[in-house]
Every structure is written in C-alpha cells, then in structure tokens.
Amino acid sequence: MRITVICVGKIKEKYLRSAIDEYSKRLSRYCKLNIIELSDEKTPDNASGKEEILIKVKEGDAILKNIKDSMFVIALELKGNMLSSQELSNYIRNLGVRGESNIAFIIGGSLGLSKAVLERSNYKLCFSKMTFPHQLFRVMLLEQIYRGFRIISGEPYHK
C-alpha cells in the first residue's frame, strides 16, 4: 500500500521532525510512505474573508497538483467524520480490499482546505473538534496510520 501525506507548512521544530522520522521508519514495514511538504501562504494580520479565501485557493492549487488521479483522497477536515483508531484501521484495511492501495491524506494550512480540495476528496476525516498546530497534527496522523497498520496486522499496540 502507498500512503502519501500532502501537507501545507514546513516543520521547523527539531523534536517534531524527529517524531516524524521515527514514525516514517516504523511505517516502512507496512507501506510505502511519501510526505510532500508544501509552502504555506503568509496570512496578513486582520486578513479579510476574501484574502483568506484567496490564500486557501493558492494552497489548494498546490495540493491538487500533487494529487494523482489514482489516489483515494482523505481530507483532514473539522466537518469530517470522527473515527476511533480501530475504525480508522478498518477503513484503511477495507480500502485495500477494494483495491484502493494509493491513499493520500491531506493536511491544510492554518486556514484549512480550499473548496476545490474538499470537492476532490473521497472522504473527510476529523480527529477532534479541537484545533491543533498543523506541524503537530502531522505527527498525530502518522502515529494513527502506524497504529492502524499494527491493528490490521494483529500486532500488539498500546491501548
């Protein structure tokens, strides 16, 4: 299975980079992982709603350029479905059974995802109604994907 994480924003903190590297190494047993980091657009203080939409469109265009037609796209979206770790594991397993072996997870920038990216997505997933820094969220996503593959493989993992 191929897992691609397309994310807006660069990781600056060393401790987050270390965690991403660790989960990337762990995931290499289960899938081919590709992380695509895209530059985020600078949002001016007191940006108008129109300016925010334009920023999301620019970031969205960059995201869409990295999505292949063959990818099953899961957008990380506050209005998406909330799943437990077990349910996410089952969802990933079922995608594989259906022949969807090229999965892309999309993490937007601080303003969220553009309408075009949401329309291209096949599924919308929400981890929580809370707000997380997108750099930290990348670590959380990789951990949950790793946990999912451990569950699929019937291997023990901390509950």
Automatic annotation (TrEMBL):
The protein's superkingdom reads Bacteria
- The enzyme's first-digit EC class, named in words, is transferase
User: Under which EC number(s) is this enzyme classified?
Assistant: 2.1.1.177
UniProt main location, coarse: cytoplasm
Give me any GO biological process, just one.
methylation
Its annotated compartments are:
Cytoplasm
Keywords on record: Cytoplasm, Methyltransferase, rRNA processing, S-adenosyl-L-methionine, Transferase
User: Do you know which CDD domains this protein is assigned to?
Assistant: RlmH-like
- Binding of S-adenosyl-L-methionine occurs at L76, G108, F127, S128, K129, M130, T131, F132
Catalysed reaction(s)?
A: pseudouridine(1915) in 23S rRNA + S-adenosyl-L-methionine = N(3)-methylpseudouridine(1915) in 23S rRNA + S-adenosyl-L-homocysteine + H(+)
Q: Enumerate the GO terms in the molecular function aspect.
A: methyltransferase activity
Q: Name the job this protein performs.
A: Specifically methylates the pseudouridine at position 1915 (m3Psi1915) in 23S rRNA.
Query: Its quaternary structure?
Result: Homodimer.
Record-stated family: Belongs to the RNA methyltransferase RlmH family.
Q: Kindly give the NCBIfam families that the UniProt entry links to this protein.
A: PRK00103.1-3 (NF000985), tRNA_RlmH_YbeA (TIGR00246)
The name this protein goes by in its record: Ribosomal RNA large subunit methyltransferase H
Q: Which gene encodes it?
A: rlmH
